[in-house]
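so the lab meeting is tmrw and i was supposed to have these ready like two days ago... anyway. pasting both below. for each one the top line is the aa sequence and the line under it is the structure tokens. i havent really looked at them closely yet so no promises
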Amino acid sequence: MTEHCGRNRRAAPEERTMKIGIIGAGNIGGNLTRRFTALGHQVVVANSRGPQTLTELAAETGATAVPVTEVAKGAELVVVTIPLKAVPGLPEGVFAGAADGLVVVDTGNYYPQRDGRIAGIEDDGLTESRWTEGHLGHPVVKAFNSTYAQDFLERPRPAGDPDRMALPVAGDDAAAKQTVRALIEEIGFDTVDAGGLDDSWRQQPGTPAYGLRAGVPEVTKALAEASPERPADFRG
């Protein structure tokens, strides 16, 4: 049975709650806000249009809407889930005031038709998240990019369920990556370690793992079968 998101469910005593910031309130950001608040995490959310545009999401979930400049204050983890073309426009010092050991998650995918041609990705060969990391000035973990936003609400399953999906996670910091993997598992999905950030091309658009709704063995196989050649549909 599909697990539904509900704001009244709170974390079990053994689960550690976190303060989580989310930059971007589109499909992914909105649905992650719903899932994290349902588990009792303290969530603050921001977008480019201002907190006054997030009143409905805040009322629905119990999250707090804030300006982008305040989203990281006290946060242990910040999810950046905006179009790649918008990343360079984030305020300088956007992570100021975050908790020590802040983990930053990048959900971004490069779509040239939307983002315009990005030379650092296409000419210099940077992975999408390595390019984003350079603009953010903070290490990132690549996650939540390879499946559909609605899956975060409709496809959570308990551990051990044969229909439980797996999501790939890539990053250079082992501790940060483990924090993200634990959070993903908490919201109802298995995870696969996809390697370092320079390996994150294996979960980018156009690869076998991208959009794959499957378990650990299938996702692991898809990551291994990926080609570093960027498909023509995803080149500018």
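ok protien two:
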Amino acid sequence: MFAMSLGEDGAQLRPLEPWRAAEFLAHMDRGREFIGRFIALPDVVTDLESSRSYLRSYADKAAADTGGIYGIWAEDTLVGGVLFRTMDVAQGTAEVGCWLEPSAVGRGLVTRAARAIVDWAVEERHIHRVEWQVAAANEASIAVARRLGMTKEGVLRQSYLYRGERHDIEVWSVLAPEWRAARRAR
């Protein structure tokens, strides 16, 4: 088990493993409405078994080297997370995602956590392209993509059917050379 510091405020990034299913469910229950505005995670994690199953699916992805999921803890409470929704090491591509409960908004936690996993993907796994797909109405997530130095590549018009409505998805990305140059400039 590891915990990575996300800064002087004591926030930490830790693996979200199946044994944390009850904690993950409690977190979803605290943020269900807020988190569910743009992503389906709260619709998938509805009880202890679905929570365990969701985390198990990411444990399987980690074992297959095709994804991973990490929680963000603040004051020793799970308040959000980041993930590699997909990862293809052979192609050098990955898609990163995030979520956060309302109590933790505005502290830069997602940006710091996403920066940590993108840095790991680029430097340790030699991922060349990291992608961020976001509902066009999700201004907070778009702001994270910008803070990460990503470039908006386009809009997938009405490509995401969510709760009976079609939503536009913006595609943002950063390439390894851009990531490294931005890191040197910090």
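from a quick look at the 2nd one: The chain is about 40% helix and 35% strand. The first strand starts at residue 4 and ends at 5. will dig more after coffe
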